[in-house]
Design goal:
single chain, alpha/beta, binds iron/sulfur cluster, 20 helices, seven-stranded mixed beta sheet, elongated
């Protein structure tokens, strides 16, 4: 179909009162020769209907609507196949600028110019549909409480599942538990774990293929096309022998946790009768008795030591959320089994979230359970037998001592994860140590091998990914992606951690988490089969196209992609695995050759928008400032500025970007060459509490921004002409200040000397 552009200018919401609409239409029809331009009373409801009627009647293929913010439209509001862009005349012009003002009009006209230039360059998006059929089955790694629940949830929804368990039977820690904490009202009685029934349900489900004594030898490919090789974990079959191979569409990592090492001063490992909470649980489950390991005598008194190492910054510095509940549970079953037994619980704080508070109260009622707020300072063998536990009672301020048969340490949780990036770095260092170009390089690489050698052989998933064989991990080893906004996500599309490998949680929480991960896996295979991106650009059908004839194999894109999308061939040429891609554009920002583009977002498109702005010459003494702003937080924040009717500097021209990481340095130099006096880059917060929707895009932009500023200096330009800011949506009130202060800086250093050259 021939291309035909149309422009609709909305006159509602005070737009007609604030702006010269005829002049705006002239920009479209005069300057840009747009064949169709009209006004509408509103651009929602009946106004939207009349726009769509106009699109159909005129046979428009590309449309610019000047009116309300793009964020107020939903998918399907405009006809399929028509490219539609929105000029935010209401939120970003008339709601934050004085009506009838010359600068307000220039702002509106420039915004219209930018979006007409944008649609001129945009091309229709065709979804990426691989030639091979997308496989919709799901691999679950880990056959404990979380893994079995995820498998059952996915199977019940109609998806085939491969459930892989390293040991020779299903159940994980759940199978080692004697009793479970109460999970239903009135939250007073201990419960059976239900593990046998769960295992039977899994094994009896025809949609679930159970693979015990197996590990994932390799997971190659991409969502919808993962090729899995299972290897023996050694129970009866030689370790590492290939057992099976199959294809799946998504992966759930439910590899669980292991107990943290207890604090050293509690005599664990020195005294046999000092055990961990997991040891006690297994002892009762397996032998049906609570005994002292030293002599096999029945234990009549137990001291439970909370935070047996956790919350200690030197040791294990976070709360594992279930240890208090476990000790309360174990104290209760000790008492239920023997009414003369005594349980002493020493705690700094007791955490029993939600309804578990009722269970805590139930345990407090028991006359044989003694809860003491205090710090255990010593555990020693008593002369008369048993163990002496010395504690400082922090409420009464005195030292106390009890003699007990057994000491149980509340050992925290450590995730069964691996640092995939470190494993990859170790592999790279090994190669460099052997094949480095100089003695110095080889020596440096050898040093790195030493530093990283603890990661040798630790891989769990064994992903055939350029960026490493496992999900990247965050603090404490948890492979979360975005703990503030999107806790179920990971940094590898189609691979979802669930349960205690994702964060410490109880059994109920693990089952909820498993259901969430199953849902994410199902979303992923379904959206991949339609050629659509998953979160956070859910439904986006665009994908990056690499013009590889001009690729210099610099590897920036493969290294900087936050999601490990790009593999490399032997020469270092990027190989796109499109169903892994989140469409963030970070590769586009990284590429010095500018050969990465989306049909609807490219270096060329944004360059055209920059060049579309009418920059006054130096004689007019009105600077022009460009703001490249992340559309995830910074642009919504700018809409909020308008909604709160806060005024901001009208000389700033704003271009939304998918992620600050997608900003290519060339845009800054082009803006300066086009006469802009300064460039602002505004993206999400980065660091440990990052809010960047694309994980490290914002941080990368800051690194690249520093390089840009250095380059400006080398060009004898003031580096103050480029400023970078982190902003979260709730900080919208900062935006007018950021714009205003930047304008002052520019005023101080003077106009861009390249203006008009
Ligand atoms: S950087 Fe973003 S757009 Fe590029 S390949 Fe990776 S996920 Fe896709
Ligand atoms: S950043 Fe560009 S030039 Fe470098 S490897 Fe990637 S595509 Fe090739």
């Amino acid at each position: 179909m021939d291309e035909k552009i149309g422009v609709f200018i909305c006159t509602g919401y005070g737009i007609a009162e604030a702006l010269d609409i005829d002049a705006l239409c002239k920009v479209a029809t005069g300057e840009y020769g747009v064949p169709f331009c009209t006004t509408v009373d509103s651009c929602e409801g009946p106004g939207l209907k009349s726009i769509n009627e106009g699109i159909a009647a005129e046979g428009l293929t590309k449309v610019v609507v000047g009116g309300i913010s793009a964020r107020l439209y939903a998918e399907g509001d405009f006809p399929e196949g028509v490219i539609v862009e929105h000029v935010p005349l209401r939120e970003q012009v008339v709601w934050c600028q004085p009506a009838g003002d010359e600068d307000t009009q220039m702002l509106a006209e420039d915004n219209l110019r930018m979006y007409i230039a944008k649609v001129q360059k945009m091309e229709p998006v065709e979804p990426f549909l691989p030639e091979e059929t997308i496989d919709k089955s799901i691999l679950v790694v880990g056959g404990g409480n979380t893994g079995m629940t995820a498998a059952l949830e996915a199977a019940k929804t109609g998806y085939d599942v491969h459930l892989v368990e390293k040991s020779d039977k299903l159940g994980g820690w759940l199978a080692k538990q004697y009793r479970s904490v109460p999970t239903k009202p009135p939250y007073r009685e201990l419960e059976e774990t239900g593990v046998d029934a769960m295992i039977a349900e899994v094994e009896g489900n025809p949609r679930i293929a159970v693979h015990t004594s197996a590990i994932t030898g390799e997971i190659a490919g991409a969502p919808g096309l993962f090729d899995v090789t299972l290897k023996s974990s050694g129970n009866g079959v030689p370790t590492g022998e290939v057992l099976d191979s199959f294809r799946v569409g998504a992966v759930i990592q439910a590899t669980g946790w292991r107990p943290a090492d207890p604090r050293e001063n509690l005599s664990y490992g020195d005294l046999e009768d000092v055990v961990r909470n997991v040891d006690l649980e297994e002892m009762v489950k397996e032998h049906g008795r609570i005994t002292r390991p030293s002599d096999g005598k029945e234990a009549k008194s137990i001291a439970f030591v909370q935070c047996g190492g956790c919350t200690d910054p030197e040791h294990h510095s976070y709360c594992s959320s279930i240890c208090c509940l476990t000790s309360l549970k174990q104290a209760l079953y000790l008492r239920e089994r023997d009414e003369d037994a005594k349980a002493y619980i020493f705690y700094e704080f007791i955490r029993t979230p939600g309804q578990y508070e009722l269970f805590y109260r139930r345990v407090q009622e028991d006359p044989g359970v003694f809860l003491t707020r205090g710090e255990v300072t010593d555990v020693a063998r008593a002369e008369g037998g048993g163990l002496d536990v010395t504690a400082r009672d922090t409420m009464a301020g005195e030292q106390i001592q009890v003699n007990v048969d057994l000491v149980v340490l509340a050992a925290g949780m450590v995730p069964n994860s691996a640092d995939g990036e470190a494993v990859r770095a170790l592999e790279d260092a090994k190669v460099a140590a052997e094949k480095g170009e100089s003695d110095v390089q080889r020596a440096q690489a050898a040093e790195k091998v030493e530093q990283l050698k603890q990661h040798e052989g630790t891989a769990i998933l064994n992903l055939a990914y350029r960026q490493g064989p496992d999900l990247p991990i965050l603090q404490y080893g948890y492979p979360d992606s975005h703990f503030i906004c999107f806790p179920y996500e990971s940094r590898r599309t189609g691979i979802y951690p669930a349960g205690c490998v994702r964060q410490p949680m109880d059994g109920v929480g693990s089952r909820e988490d498993a259901a969430g991960a199953a849902l994410k896996a199902i979303q992923c295979v379904e959206m991949s089969s339609r050629g659509e991106a998953v979160h956070p650009r859910a439904g986006d059908r665009s994908y990056p196209d690499f013009f590889l004839q001009k690729c210099t194999q610099c590897k920036r894109c493969t290294e900087e992609c936050p999601f490990g999308v790009l593999n490399e061939d032997v020469k270092g040429t990027p190989l796109l695995r499109a169903t892994r891609c989140r469409r963030c554009g970070v590769c586009m920002g990284a590429c010095p050759e500018r050969i990465v583009s989306f049909k609807d977002y490219s270096v060329d498109i944004v360059s055209a928008m920059i060049k579309a702005v009418e920059v006054p010459d130096e004689l007019e003494e009105k600077p022009r400032l460009l703001a490249l702003m992340c559309e995830n937080d910074a642009i919504p924040a700018l809409d909020l500025v308008g909604q709160h009717r806060l005024a901001y500097n009208p000389l700033v021209r704003v271009i939304p970007v998918r992620c600050l990481g997608s900003v290519n340095a060339v845009w800054v130099s082009e803006a300066i060459s086009a006469g802009f006096d300064g460039v602002l880059l505004i993206g999400c917060r980065y660091g440990d509490d990052y809010q960047c929707h694309f994980i490290k895009g914002s941080e990368l932009a800051f690194t690249r921004g520093e390089n840009i500023r250095e380059k400006l200096e080398k060009m004898a330009m003031e580096n103050e002409r480029v400023e970078l800011h982190q902003l979260q949506i709730s900080e919208y009130e900062r935006l007018p200040e950021i714009f205003g202060k930047f304008a002052e800086v520019i005023e101080e250093i003077g106009m861009n000397p390249f203006k008009g050259m």
